[in-house]
Amino acid sequence: MIDQVEMMAGQRRIIGDHFRYNGRHDSIVILMHGFVSSKENNYMVAEALQESNIDSLAFDFNGHGGSDGDFADFTLTKAIEDCKAAVEFAKSKGYERIGLFGFSIGGFVALGAMKNGVKADSAVLCAPLSDFHAIFGGVDLKEWKESGMLRAPNLGLSIRLNYSFYEDGMNHNSYESYSKVTVPMLIVHGTNDDIVPISQSEELIRHLSNSHLLKINGATHNLFSNEYAGECLDSIVKWFKAKL
User: How many CB atoms lie within 10 A of CB 157?
Assistant: First the structure.
């Protein structure tokens, strides 16, 4: 079963899809999508979990998909609030054990949420951003601040996004602070990732006390659109079945 649900993050309405199998369950995985994306991009993960009798909740970040807000006003702090709202919604439905899944910038949000009080029992991050500054290091910050346009050829982006996104993201950018995160965590990263280099995840696990890095040889940033999708989905499902 799939039910569309609404949650409130402060005054913002957040839209999600609740994937449930036909049975009683006490655990759920919260699914967080990547940048300039939507909850639909996590359907493949949700369906793989559902086939293994694991419930999940895929939602749109503020300013994305059906959720409230203008994309130009999107920030990581708001996204962390969205994650908190999703976790509280899951708890209100009787779920006792919470897993977090984040792809790309969704992984950065998951890390930020766990650093800021969100209690999870397990997590999987795929191609996660963990060094915010490095990703935007080649951007003309002065031009971005003056124009309100993010132009990042290395990311294939030319979009209207307020400079406050960068300022806010830098406030969350600290490898040292990840030592606060002790949740059992699987990190899946392609060795040929041309958006978020695997070196970020290699550095990340140095600061996490309970993590494992699975390297997908030859895979690029989009782990789920090619011949590596099966291996990635299988590793995600196996992790949550064992750790959630």
Answer: 14
pLDDT per position as a tens digit, 55-83: 999 999 999 999 999 999 999 999 999 99
Homologous superfamily (CATH) of 2-131+175-243 is: Alpha/Beta hydrolase fold, catalytic domain (3.40.50.1820)
Q: Assign 11 a pLDDT band (cuts: 50, 70, 90).
A: very high
Instruction: Measure the CA–CA gap between 101 and 95, rounded to whole angstroms.
Output: 16
Return d(Cα 22, Cα 50) in angstroms, integer.
10
186 forms bridges with which residues in the sheet?
124, 212
pLDDT of residue 185: 98
Q: Yes or no: say if 61 and 74 are a contact pair by the CB < 8 Å rule.
A: yes
Cα Rg for the chain, rounded, in angstroms? 17
Is 103:33 a contact under the CB 8 Å cutoff? yes
User: pTM value?
Assistant: 0.96
Q: Which helix (H) or strand (E) holds 198?
A: helix 198-204
Question: Taking phi first (over 0 means left), then psi (-120 to 50 degrees means alpha), and beta for anything else, what does residue 124 get?
Answer: beta
Q: What residue ranges do the domains of the chain occupy? A: 2-131+175-243
